[in-house]
Amino acid sequence: MNAAPGSGKSVLAASIIENLVHLEKKDHDKVIYFFCRFDEPDKCKAISALKSLAIQALKLVKYIPDELSEMYQEEFSTEDSFIANNSIAERALGCILKHIPYVSVIIDGLDECSESALLDSLVRLRDQKSPGITKWLFTSRNDPMIRKKLGSSNWDILTVPKTVVQNDIRKFLEDNSDLLCGTCDQLDRVTKMSQGNFLMMRLTIDPFRNEELTCAEEFEEALDNFQPELSRCWFRSLRRLLERSDQIQELAL
């Protein structure tokens, strides 16, 4: 699933994980996940994602698979007992997944991983033969490289248009209308201002939560006065962005 930055992909992924964990159908409630983060070194590497998924998957099996034990004996010595190689981490994860009857795997922010090796590993793991059922969900922005690789591997690609995100933002504003004291027209105005971006919407409404607005007229006045401040906020963000690495600037674009 791909959508624009700030459209709620990570929140959606977290909600899906929570719903799976609390499923009444207990044989379908097993889920492993990883959230890639470009601004955290340990969360934007392929090895980190594969190792995390392998550790989570290992907790879902009753016994350590013989194949995994043999792999450990072959690959590690007394002095070196840590996985530091993508291919070994991929093999370990693949081995464990074969022994889980039903599991969901969720990777959020795939485009935030600094290494394309992660996507290659995940595609190979999806294609491996297994007696059980493994369901996969990736979220990312609309990255051409990711779309190309997943498209050639027969994945279902869901693109979320801005109008859908705006509908979600409008619903969110309705649910919090008691905090904003806004009319339907005013909430429509905030929704349009968001441009289909939850971050933009949050920047718009957060100051109102700290003010004592008691009626729609005060909300309208605060909304009018807030526009210049919002512009300054974006300029400050752009100045900070210029101080970051080329990769982070590219992601922001």
> What is the tally of helical segments?
12
Helix-strand makeup class: mainly alpha
**Main sheet: strands, sense, barrel:** 3 strands, parallel
Question: Which whole number gives the mean pLDDT?
Answer: 82
Distance between the termini: 19 Å
What proportion strand? 5-15%
- The side-by-side strand order for the widest beta sheet comes to 1-2-3
Q: Point out poorly predicted stretches.
A: none
**How would the global form be characterised?**
elongated
DSSP strand count: 3
Secondary structure: helix percent: 55-70%
Order of helices and strands: HEHHHEHEHHHHHHH
Gyration radius (Cα, Å) is 22 Å
Question: Could you describe the 3D structure shown?
Answer:
- By secondary structure, this protein is mainly α.
- Helix content is 57%, strand content 7%.
- Strands 1-2-3 form a three-stranded parallel sheet, with helices on both faces.
- Helix 9 (184-194) crosses helix 10 (198-209).
- The longest helix is centred in the last third of the chain and has 27 residues, at 216-242.
- The relative contact order is 0.13.
Sequence-ordered SSE layout with sheet pairings:
Elements: H1 9-21, E1 31-35, H2 46-58, H3 66-75, H4 86-97, E2 102-108, H5 117-127, E3 133-138, H6 144-152, H7 162-175, H8 177-180, H9 184-194, H10 198-209, H11 216-242, H12 246-252
Parallel strand pairs: 1-2, 2-3
Helix pairs in contact: 2-4, 3-4, 4-5, 7-9, 9-10
Provide a short characterization of the protein structure.
Helix content is 57%, strand content 7%. With 253 residues, the protein is mainly alpha-helical.
